[in-house]
Amino acid sequence: MITNFNIGLLGHVDSGKTTLARALSSVSSTAAFDKNPQSLTFVDCPGHASLIRTIIGGAQIIDLMLLVVDAQKGIQTQTAECLVIGELLGKKLLVVINKIDALAKEQREAKLEKLRNRLKKTLAGTAFGEQVPIYSVSALEGENIEQLRAGLAQSYYAPQRNTKAPLLMYVDHCFAIKGQGTVCTGTVIQGGVAVNDNVELPLLGERRKVKSIQRFRQPVERASTGDRIGLCVTQFNAKLMERGIVAEPGYLRPVYAVCVKLQGIRYYKQAIKSRSKLHISVGHDTVMANVTLFRDEAGAADFDLGKEYEYVEELLPADSMPSDGTFALLQFETPVLTTLGTTLIASKLDMDVHSNSCRLAFWGRIAWQTHSVNYEKELLPQLRVFKHKEKQGNVQRVVNEHEVIVQNLFKKDANRDMYVGKRVQLSTGETGHIERTFGQTAKVCIVFRDGLNPATLEQLKTERAKDVRVLLKYKKYAFNKHAQLFQ
Predict the structure, then answer these.
(1) How many Cα atoms are found within 13 Å in the side-chain-facing hemisphere of 300?
(2) Is residue 33 scored above 50 in pLDDT?
């Protein structure tokens, strides 16, 4: 059985990835790899927003990454983004400095040496380390392509494929062939498929029978993880699924919201805020999602729906590192097809692609997900994320040393009864509780079981009484409006 070896080409826009893929495809043969029968596929990853979707979507089957750097422009914004993606995917890396023909020959070696040193310094601060092989080529003129090909041969290893898992194939193109059926071209991400199998098109909610399979234009009886194939199934309207997924029947269902342990990306220099929207790349999809941040005060690494969590308003860049027990609830504007444990990336892809700012905000693996359309009513109230709340009032009058009447603690139309029994504290230190409501306005009666300090009683009889604040601190669940507040 031939094993397909997939090489992903990453890099900033216009770094020459497509030209390099073409050059490698034209000169590469399997001769250097004959000890392991296989075929090579070069995956040219776009440099814009679809970069993230392409890489994350195909992460399971990319075996080696080529980071392509423009010899004239050096390290650019998306170069750093590619390094980040490569780190979190844990793939092997080679660096290729391309377009060396654009450098004047008399200055070429000096400039290349300077760029190589800068690349090594950058790589030293990553999981890859400074020992990553660096090649200098001209894809346009074919210069040093043979050396790069030899480097690829040296970096080859026999990839391990997840062939026992349920079928998952990412489709990048569909078209109909009259009298035969509809052909879906794409990559088998996991599992395998054979002629006469029944498969599902989850986006359409339909099932079809596999009529034939081609790999590199040759008919085959079956295909497995890592293979680029054309899958001919019984006919459906190809216009309804230009890009999509083919899966084992029943394996994928729409997911409307997920929770992930937030893993910060050090190059992202903006605050990550609750109630904001970010682009979420997961599986074959990139969709918008509403973000809610929350934290386990004990710093636990695993998400547990049964625990209580503290609501987090925002994470500043220095805070969003992976060790602080922060989680994110992502509520998708459009449902996605994914599974537990899948890696996702949150990004701000509406930023200028030519700016110097990293667009990748954070990443994580799905720890909880819901297939319920009505999850906001049925499931979110179970997520016990609380907000710290505080109300302040002042003493209107002293009844006796154990009892005062407080005003301005509540609005006129507030339901004061729900606060009866709750603990309050004076800014002078005494602790009491709300005994009952008082009158028809927003006043309440507060009782101090141990009595007020003599100094406080004296102060409350003077003009300085207004300096004594009455503080009511409590917690309220963010997703359960009907739950009682608690302290």
Answers:
(1) 12
(2) no
